[in-house]
Amino acid sequence: MALKRFKPVTPSNRYKVWSAFDEITKDTPEKKLLVPRKRTGGRNNKGRITCRHVGGGHKRKYRLIDFKRRRFDEAAKVVGIEYDPNRTARIALIEYADGQRSYILAPVGLEVGASVVSGENAPPAIGNTLPLANIPLGSSIHNIELQPGRGGQVARSAGQQAVLSNREGDYALVRMPSGEIRKILGRCVATMGQVGNIDHMNQVSGKAGRSRWKGIRPTVRGMCMNPVDHPNGGGEGKSKSGGGRQHLKSPWGHTKGQKTRQKYKASSKFIVQRRKTVNK
Length: 280
Hints:
It is built from 1 helix and 17 strands.
């Protein structure tokens, strides 16, 4: 993926860095794989805001992605690479021998005309889906299942990859994109390769309006609010000592490094090494 820079003829173009979209080969989505996507505005069924900074944005339709890849030992041909407005990664349209089409996440190096297959007998090639027990050690993988048959849940956004580092009995040890090492059952499947659009993190929108197109509303610092609206609000001017700002907080509790993971969680027994662990 390449990045595109613009001449600073307007203020919004001065720092704007967008994708060149040179990997896109198909600009019309598959109609049978589109479903309506209702926008909530960040509100629940009672009309109360449960997710701040959400609202507006351009209309979208959701692309049905095949995260399970359950058509084992059936080869599919890549028809095209498409843009998906609902995710940072690109998606690939594949077609099976009987004419059925589906979307998958497009990994780096997957090209139109390539063949992808899933199953225990599939070769460890880019875009193929295999059980973790059959993937060579040290391989880069994405779209990883945590429970057999549930579908991929880990490493699905642009540029992400995990590494299969070792095996212990029926379990595989996978280094997550966060650096955490976790045990996952060997019967769980994963897709070979790294998720495409790896330069997504280097894009610069250039103006606030583009965030509004995406449905992202402005974010106001708690320090600028009133005490009734935020724990950090109040005070005379930019006060850092009084006005209820002795400790940095969010409206839901302490911030700045406090652990948010539940102390006793069932899945903790599968974590071999936590992320951000300091080696001594």
